[in-house]
Amino acid sequence: MTALFDRDQEKDVLRNATLVWESAKKSTLLEDLKAWAWEVGAKAVEDRAPSAEEVTDEVEQALRYWDIVWKPNVDLLRAQGRPNAWIEADVKRWKRQRQERRRELIGQATD
Fold this sequence. Notes:
The model has no long low-confidence stretch (mean pLDDT 85). Strand 1 and strand 2 form a beta hairpin. The protein has two domains: 38 residues, no CATH class; 55 residues. The protein is of the alpha+beta class. It has a two-stranded antiparallel sheet with strand order 1-2.
């Protein structure tokens, strides 16, 4: 959660305050904050940015294209005589990079 404040420095008055909930899931804390805001006369506005679940298909398609370029071809590497330890290291590195790419794509899609 992030809080943004707009203050009038000369009058030392708060003009506007915004709480930004940065999670795909709603929690009881969020619901309590919305109820409190309503009680004190503030407005609660929800931004309809897509959740992680809503962008899964797009992310998976992007990862399929990413795999075409970056996934090691184990059979070809073995046929070329590459040592198994190197192939395993390549696959492990690819899996780690793929997870990083997944997180990046989900972040871009939900921003």
